[in-house]
């Protein structure tokens, strides 16, 4: 069944992550699967791990920011977008995401 297949896939990814601690690839794939299945806390935690392993990975920062938005933590999303822009100034996705999150923060305060 689908639930059993999902659980088996997650277990396999977790085992691969454990065996290849310095290889972010498995974490990237599992984080995306979590995100696609609306498991945003798990996805965001894995994106944090990816960012630690690959500190110059802009995509990891962008994905982490998206995760923070989904779990309702806009200040952390802003920090992740800002870090992406430090790594790659002018990144269109980071600029757009930062503008969107800051706009939400301003609306929420008023």
Search tags:
single chain; 110 residues; mainly alpha; 6 helices
Architecture overview:
With 110 residues, the protein is mainly α. 81% of the residues lie in helices and 0% in strands. The chain is globular and about 45 Å long.
- Shape from CA axes? globular
Portion in helices: over 70%
Task: Give the strand tally.
Answer: 0
- Uncertain spans, ≥5 residues at pLDDT below 50? none
Overall residue-averaged pLDDT value: 89
Question: What is the element layout, followed by pairings?
Answer:
Blueprint: H1 2-19, H2 25-36, H3 40-53, H4 58-70, H5 74-87, H6 92-109
Helix pairs in contact: 1-2, 2-3, 3-4, 4-5, 4-6, 5-6
Brief characterization of the structure:
This protein has helices spanning 2-19, 25-36, 40-53, 58-70, 74-87, 92-109.
